[in-house]
Batch of 4 targets.
Target 1
Amino acid sequence: MNRLSTPWGVSELARFPEDPRDTLRAWDAADEYLLRHLAGTDEVPPVDLGGSVVVLGDRWGALTTALAGHRPVQITDSYLGQRATRANLARNGAAPDAVTLLSTRDTPPDRVDVLLIRVPKSLALLEDQLHRLAPGIHEDTVVVGTGMVKEIHTSTLRLFERIVGPTRTSLAEKKARLIFCTPGQAREPSAGPWPVTYTLDSDAGAGSGVTVTNHAGIFCAERLDIGTRFFLQHLAKSRHLAPGAGPARILDLGCGNGVVGTAAALARPGADVVFADESFQAVASAEATCRANLPEAADKAEFLVGDGTAGIPHESVDLVLNNPPFHSHQATTDATARRMFAGARDVLRPGGELLVVGNRHLGYHVRLRRLFGNCEVIAGDPKFVVLRAVKR
């Protein structure tokens, strides 16, 4: 639990899910800097928060919780971030209806008087959301972004300038910086380039020929990343995808654009496939990818935005396919992978398989052996390994 002191009081904050071993805070210097600016200084008057306030990309709800008295609208791509916001609002005594929580797939407000932006890691997601919000921005809208210095690049500022209007930055404080953007008269039209599609070549193994759809913010959105390509090349080594295998229930855990789950469905016609991710953009991409290649399979598939395997029944799955992230925003951590592996073990039936691809140096085999009592390398190259663990 963290205590963030703001001009609106002290907020008790935590990430979601709460983990006593997690040393990462639910806020950082960029959040503090923006909140101080909004309250005003000797040189700058406070920002009028009496109109429609929209908070885009608030990572764990620190900004939204501090500003709850102004009834902001939060827009996020993260289910976990949204859950953290709900929990933080509750623990700080905010009324349940004090804040409107929207995902990046929802229709944004018609009018935006104050737009506060926590700069995301994905420039494409920022571009997409600025395009979506642009119709509600007017010439008097106050637009302020925030981020750590290492997160704000020349390309970030050019994006604000191109879609919203003239842009400048503040001086850095505690390695954080603010972005000030003045809505211009002639802004770029609000139609962005997303989603994008491409078709996989013959070197993509089980995914060869699959048409992939990516909404903004998906990792390697304009091409297949090399880790996923390596995974697809060795997917057939699962006994549940081998010729003659019986019906199976397959979980694409942390599905991203759904190419792995779609390739598995192509390899095992008649399988029931579940696509699960904490990103709203990812699950929308996975559904579009599956429907483009297997419309009938998509009709019976499940597309779940949630917290890992939460909501999936115990011992209901035969095969889990997983390419776990090892970053949480800018922080490197194996916390997500650990939770995914434990969740996979819970939902697998006895005899079920977990197939994992990861960078060789991450040492996932150690964790899998502890959890499952077994782990084997079924494919490897100097950078990646594909691991198999079987639930006994």
Target 2
Amino acid sequence: MAAYLLAEIDVTDPEGFEAYRRVVPNLIARFGGRYLARGGAAEVLEGERRLKRTVLLEFPGMATLRAFYGSPEYQPLLALRQASSQSEVLIFDGLPSDA
């Protein structure tokens, strides 16, 4: 069953975040992940949007997603993202294929 990572991000250091953005897509792909949404215009239909950038990633499963997020290769990138932005990150399972 697919698993998803949803990140809401406010970039506070554009240069630092650009260094993260240049490198992380290849690592995501190495773990079988892919972008479903990244940035772009968003319209709030309910509630209040606190952060400005949305990223939605899909991975083959929760174990793979956690392996990516906890990988030694991602840890310096995670530190770079955290130093150059404010973020809220959620992970969750998708629906079974027969749902």
Target 3
Amino acid sequence: MQLIDPSHPLYKPLWVRILIVAVCFGWAGVEMLGSQPFWAMLSGALGAYAAWMLLLNFKPQPPVADVEAPPHDDADESDRPADDKK
């Protein structure tokens, strides 16, 4: 089961990925200071998973070209046969 989709465009900038990991580990620190070990472990584990997916295992995907759009032809419409026109 994949909780974080690294191919999502939101995760492309490095600063976004670092911020997500830092917030998770920062929240784990806040929970430890508040003597809440369960929530600290939970947010620390989420931070570790986010670091693995977004920093260590991140491979950005190249942008996918629009396959449905035909290439633009500069030829005049009148040069084409009548059955080829739409």
Target 4
Amino acid sequence: MTGRVAASAPVAAPGLHARHRAVLPAWLSLYYAEPIELTHGEGRYVWDAEGRRYLDFFGGILTTMTAHALPEVTKAVAEQAGRILHTSTLYLDRHMVELAERVAALSGIPDARVFFTTSGTEANDAALLLATTYRRSNQILAMRNSYHGRSFSTVGITGNSAWSPTSLSPLQALYVHGAVRSQGPYAHLSDAAFTAACVRDLEDMLGQAHGTVAALIAEPVQGVGGFTAAPDGLYAAFREVLDRHGILWISDEVQTGWGRTGDHFWGWQAHAENGPPDLLTFAKGIGNGMSVGGVVARAEVMDCLEANSISTFGGSPVTMAAGLANLTYLLEHDLQGNARRVGGLLIERLRAVAAGLPVPVVREVRGRGLMIGVELTSSEAAGQALERAREEGLLIGKGGRDGTVLRIAPPLTLTVAEAEEGAAALERALRRVRQDAGTGGRS
């Protein structure tokens, strides 16, 4: 016997999905029964590791706001990376100052100050810190069906149980009606009566609160909640009540900012009758995929912190260069106007699709600009539609309180031809959903 060990058959290396499950949290969601790896993109299209091309109607959760591989942004990133990658806020940075100047001017908030973060979660977290410190209160008004991030404080004021894994929180959240127009106890009312009822609900809620309330935080259009929105002017009506009590208004513009809704540059501008918010948070689209977020606030609110603070990665030279290049491109090419024009056509096309289906599977098509929600009759139907759309070469998102809403938010450079291509793909997918539903979900 020579002592040699017989060679065993080669074992195949595990696939990327199996490796993902082996080392990453079980609660880290992946789309699709067979998750895909996206390897590159250009314009409004992306490709997976198998070489399949998709029309991207979700933009990495509304983050690739302008276009994939936009030359102006990639050039700015490459040039800055070639000079210096990182410094921190302990040193002056020209790009950070220039971007802050532009964001402050665009925000509509007088005497504004800007603090940069790395995400929308961190931006909302900073806004909550500022508001509670300024008002010396841990009580926060939030909207039902809301979502504001995944940190301990933002989860604590999220009004959507599907995204709130714990009831523990450093804050006391009081939830107000108004952000979901088509559901709830006031859905049958006219817009004016709906707004009046929600204002009465807010006043009643404040009567139940103990002591001083710090702020109301609200998304002008709820993102994770399924692209639901209050009637125009509701937050202006709320503002009258808030001002009587000295309560701050935080507008969460992480998904609605930068002209995505078409009609306005910021979502709060649909509720502008009584002036701008006291604080405004942003993220996602401004970096076009780079990690940029921030909060804008009146100077007296922003400067209320008495302890020292810095940001190690917020406002980095590379991400600020990307944000400046992206914002410049967006403004020079009037992408807000494009969102209004192309988004309006796309919404009407999708409503026609819904009306033409042989069996009604769509409950409602809603939205503004290139922020469109297609609510289906069940979460099962929405899950099937997500899968079938991918098979048709279209990437979309999913959300809503019960997971019934398809979320459509393409890059703001979307063309009319691409809008028609995406609508046709979604129509084919929805027709297949009805067939699948009739066979117990089998394709």
